[in-house]
Amino acid sequence: MILKEVKHYMLVILAGTAIFAHVAVDDSVSPMSLEEQEELKEEARDMFYHAYRAYMENAYPADELMPLSCKGRWKDPLNSRGDLDDTLGNFSLTLVDSLDTLVILGDLEEFETAVKLVIKDVSFDQDVIVSVFETNIRVLGGLLSAHILAEYFQQRDGIMPWYHGELLSLAKDLGYRLLPAFNTTTGIPHSRVNLRHGLKNMRLSAHQETCTACAGTMILEMASLSRLTGEPIFEQKAHKAMDGLWRIRHRSSDLMGTVLNVQSGDWVRRDSGVGAGIDSYYEYCLKAYILLGDEKYLGRFNKHYSAIMKYISQGPMLVDVHMHRPHTNSKNFMDALLAFWPGLQVLKGDIKPAVETHEMLYQIMQRHNLIPEAFTTDFHVHWGQHPLRPEFVESTYFLYKATNDPYYLEVGKSALKSLQKFARVPCGYATVKDVRTGGHDDRMDSFVLAETFKYLYLLFADPNDLLIDLDEFLFTTEAHLLPLSLSRNHNLTSFSLDEQHIDDMDGLNSEFARCCPNTLDLFPETVRKPLKNLVNGMCPRTMKRKLLASQFAAGNSEHLNLLKNMGIAVLSMADGRIQLVHTIASARSQADAKEGLLFMQEMLELSQSQKHLPDKSPLSVTFEKNGQTVSIAAGPAHFGKDLTGGNKVTAKVGVADPIRACGSLNNSDRLKGRIVVIQRGDCMFISKVRKAEEAGAVAAIVIDNTPGTSLVTSSMFAMSGDGKNDVTIPAVFLFHEDASELLKAIEENLGMEISITDGNSTGGRKQLVNVVNGKKTKKSNSEKLKNDFHATIERLLGGGEIIKIFQRNQSPNVQNELINLNSQKVNRIQSKEEISEWLIKFYEQVNVELMESNTSPPLDSEEGLINLKKLANKGDLPYQIVRILELLNTMNDILIRLRLLVTDKPNGWVKMYSEHIAEVKGITRKFEDCLTDLEDDIGKGVRPGYDAGKQIAINVKLKYAKLKRTFEIWNDLAKIFLEGDATAGRKGSIIVDSTQKENSSILHSAGIDEL
């Protein structure tokens, strides 16, 4: 959607915010001649057709063109690029995504041909896993836009008379195949779905993480599908997903995190920005209001926008922060996807910050020729790749349409010429591998044709050159066209785009009424002037880095000395891992301390990037020895070929020389076609495997260099990479002791054959044990903690603490009471299992968070309740949980005082009875208050900052009745002891017969198991 529609909506909904209607031209930039503008328009057209024809002639019907290989890229699990291939589905992605670009270019003949090809060749009935987000914006959006345009030209010009909604039928089929992803407790969709089987694949349904943008960029396409087909389910599901996201925003900051769990709604990554992982969610909040007219989305967008401008916008920069601590930056770099933001600000009507951020991005492009995938806050390259993204050109286009400033034509010209110079290859356009060094990757994404070339063409085109009036359309995040008239369509499959849907205002000329007055201080030149040389004028780093986190090798003595100078201590752990501890005061100098901080920050970022990689299943190393098959459970890698799903590699074994394979291999000629054995140490895992692959190895086995380590004593882990995807062979990790049998076999037969297989095929994945020596894994520390804690809870809730207290007492009355209680099995409270399970989950969750954050080691739990109290003081836990723990201790204190009364003043029961009854009742009321607070929190969402206990709060809601009953048991038990022993103290008898039956009945109804 371009300027006229922007003016209309912003004038109505954003009072006091000006859109430029007729802006004075920047005096510093001469207007571009019409001839040059026409030449650039035609050059942009040529760029599209150079890529489009290369795809059609060399790749179609594949999903994408590989411009260096000049052939098609299909969805192939055996040659996967990881998450990059989630966009592929063997449904001619590039052609579907490019359909409406052909209309923008005025090529209706090719558009008709392409539509026929899609109808003939594209099918979604395929056993492939796809990204719900990418398939929605690229394929579903492309089909809907092409359908709308086909019917429009059919009605207006009489062309394509044969077309009868086939593209809409395809879109509907695809929509239904995406719906299983929405089957979650929150309504927020899974990130991936199988087009044929939905979520029936266990591993697919088990993957419960998605990004905010992935879940929040569905509403435009899904609502359009519903309104075109008359089937409301698609729009309903998308609305529910948006509502689910809105509910889990941070209530204090109004910011969103980046990654969440679709079932629990918990945040996995709480860093917040406007770039990767969040970007198009904000975009669709505003555009959902514009397209659908639902004012709730405008309100949501305005809240988010205010928060972004308050916390994330820092001058022209947009820096990620923590959603729960918004004044603290979470990264020291920005990613290229944020370049869409100035365009969205134009749509909102906030021109000044749009000009500022766009100017910063332009200066970065001028410094590096192309905008790198990520750049630091002092504008150095962080990630050097440039995949020909459209966001910067998109914002340039919208700023030009809003301001009519020829400066933006010059910006567009620079972008166009850079693409021609650095990305054009004989067979299309290729991703630039690194803006600093050049070179290409064999990749051309479909968005290059769907968006990048489309916006370049529109920037230089005159509106009269276009076959449609863009003022009647809204651009989706993939630059597909959806008509604004959809806001009035609910059950129609066709409509007119010719209606005048913006009424004249008080008889004024419509065009004039839709314009806002100029404001001199908002002129782009006035805004840009203070930013001149923002990037090039930035002081360069004065510190030359001595060691990057990605270069660090724990066995390198030089690296260890450098870290020591930075104040970083390297501690070796029992399982062979290392722990880094930074102490600024220990650094050799202030500069070294600063570099130490940077090193630790990089190491944390590297750790976080590995943490959010997909889960890897254990593998197995299998070989024959003495006529028997031996299998050893092995750890997988976050790089190289994936062997899950029954795949395996079998070859003869080879041993690297030198054994640690951190440099050139002396015996590379003897390793070709073999599975190479390597020892851990001195360099990164992936560096070793890379050397093995260079020598021609088909797989690698890395063996731990710490003696005695095994699955019995250590936890399985997946070897990490370095962010590069250049290793293609599989690799596994074996602990030292587990590998001993393999090493003995190799000594006996150096030419032996071994296999690496999926752990499922050998039971290794299920058992996670070393089947060579038959030893099963000992209970982990966390398992022991859980058992200890369970015992504590069992004593506490089952009467064990009461019995323990009274066992110290020699009073005959109390001893007899104890015998009576034991005979009734009072310590077998049925509902103790419920609260025990609840608290154990709580304990485990906190312990895992502590271990993951490395803030402290897992706490010893001989006294589970006490240590749970310690944990409560270390994290952001629900206040009510802590109060409940305090009340449990208070109840324990009361019972201790009762014991003292029995010991010291056996005749004092009558005198103290009423006082203690009142105290017990007070405790009971406090329990009720805690439960009420918890239920209130559940009803309105867990309070901000208490995410660590959120899952527990959900469990409480489900088990509220049983918890309440359990706490009532406390009251009943206390009454039994108070009343029973008070009576015994008065009458001198063991227990009053008239009360025994009553007490037994009370205990039974409260859930006592009388075995």
UniProtKB/TrEMBL annotation:
Binding residues for Ca(2+): 477
- To which species is this protein native? Polyplax serrata (Common mouse louse)
Main location (coarse class): endoplasmic reticulum
User: Per its record, how is this protein called by name?
Assistant: alpha-1,2-Mannosidase
User: Where would I find the PA domain in this sequence?
Assistant: 659-742
Q: Hey, which family's this protein in?
A: Belongs to the glycosyl hydrolase 47 family.
Pfam families associated with the record: Glyco_hydro_47, PA
- Which residue spans adopt a coiled-coil conformation according to this UniProt entry? none
What InterPro entries does the entry give?
6hp_glycosidase-like_sf, EDEM1/2/3, Glyco_hydro_47, PA_dom_sf, PA_domain, Seven-hairpin_glycosidases
Give Gene Ontology CC terms.
endoplasmic reticulum quality control compartment; membrane
Keyword set for this entry? Calcium, Endoplasmic reticulum, Glycoprotein, Glycosidase, Hydrolase, Metal-binding
